[in-house]
Amino acid sequence: TSIFNPMLTELSEFYSQGKIASFIKRIVQNLGLLLCISAAACIGVVFLGDFAIGLVFGEKLVPYTYLMYGIIGCTTMYVISWLCTNTLIIMRRLKVCMIASLVALVVAAALAKPLINLFEMNGVSFSIIIAYAIHISVCVTVIYKNLKLKGKEK
Q: Tens digits of per-residue pLDDT, 50-106?
């Protein structure tokens, strides 16, 4: 999130000035950057995962390196969710943030046990990823509608 914090002021200015194309362009650029960082992290796990885990946490945890992919997925979804939440805050849609977060919480809680039973330790990551996906879907729907309305105000 510290990579994206500086652009919040710019996003807010674009939105308040009705510069929707610039607003969308900046969000897409940042999502592209996030995907590059996430891909680099996954590639790093492929080539250095066992070595890095062994070096940092000890050889005892090397067999669990495969869990890193779920952690990267959770982190990526968290950042996208954070970006959506901050975008909704810029749009003054705080109730949507609260509702989307509560829905995601309920989904994560409901899916945790069945997914842990099904996928063991990765079940936790999968339940969180699904919950974030739902949160992001709700947020993106409202963001899209707000941008459409803001674009018509011109």
A: 999 999 999 999 999 999 999 999 999 999 999 999 999 999 999 999 999 999 999
Rounded-to-integer distance, Cα 25 and Cα 33, Å? 12
The distance from CA 79 to its chain's CA centroid, rounded to whole angstroms, is 4
Q: Within 13 A of 142's CA, how many CA atoms are on the CB side?
A: 22
Residues in contact with 150: Cβ distance below 8 Å, sequence separation at least 6, in sequence order? 15, 18, 20
Count Cβ neighbours within 10 Å for each residue of 23-48 and write b for 16 or more, e otherwise.
beebbeebeeebeeebeebeeebeee
CB 90 within 8 A of CB 139: no
Q: What is the pTM of this model?
A: 0.87
Distance, first Cα to last Cα, the chain: 32
